[in-house]
Amino acid sequence: MRKTRAATAPEGRITVDVIGGLGRIGIDNPGRHNALSLAMWQAIPEAVATLEAAEDVRVVVLTGSEGGAFASGADITEFDVVRADAATSASYEAANAAAFAALRRAEKPTVAVIRRFCMGGGVGLAAACDIRIAADDAVFAIPAARLGLAYPPEAVADIVALIGPSRAKDLFYTAKRIDAATALRIGLVDELVRDDELEAAAVAYVARVSALAPMTQRAVKAAIDAAVGSAAGDWGRARELAELCFESQDYAEGRAAFREKREPVFTGR
């Protein structure tokens, strides 16, 4: 296991761990239910880039510090300084948008593993990932209207892509909390498990994804992003990645494994 501290601040940090084919980004600010400071928002793109560049990493997992909340949103206690007016807010919003975009544009599969609180910007981070697995006692909310602030439009679009325009408006308009069962029903999360089974479920999912062809996964992710009009969508890139699959060693390995009636061993080349 390699461990890198991507950012440290008095009130929290973003951590990066690599365990086999799993690259994990940790939101670590337990004293504030893993609220994200400006320094933590700024560290997320670097953390994603580190794992994207790691050849042995097959799946990127975003989660809260061990046993704690996923993320209770932005750290409001610093808003009087870092988000006090239009000028400072513009800089803060740019850091928010860059964090969401880094996850959204990652070519490797991304999985949010959610327990306890997933609030505000935490919902935005989860929505920017490909897949969301949550504990069945998790709670979700987007309380922007309680504070009078706005979200980056691309982050709003991520949420609309998951749950549709009217449900997204309802969450933003009312700032209401919803339970995990409701989040699953409306499509905000993809799978619910008991809290004590969450880590095992996440590891099992990552293992299943990691066993398959990464070039295929990258290609289909690009195609889906383009098809749904995601901010990360790029039809040219999607076609390029699809063509690369047919030139890859993995494609030859997949055909050979089929002929030989065995499990394939993919390398991402």
From TrEMBL:
Pfam families: ECH_1
Keywords: Lyase
InterPro entries given in the database record: ClpP/crotonase-like_dom_sf (IPR029045), Enoyl-CoA_hydra/iso (IPR001753), Enoyl-CoA_hydra_C (IPR014748)
Matching CDD domains: crotonase-like (cd06558)
Keyword Lyase: yes
Organism superkingdom: Bacteria
Name the UniProt record assigns to this protein: Enoyl-CoA hydratase/carnithine racemase
Species assigned in the record: Oharaeibacter diazotrophicus
High-level lineage: Bacteria, Pseudomonadati, Pseudomonadota, Alphaproteobacteria, Hyphomicrobiales
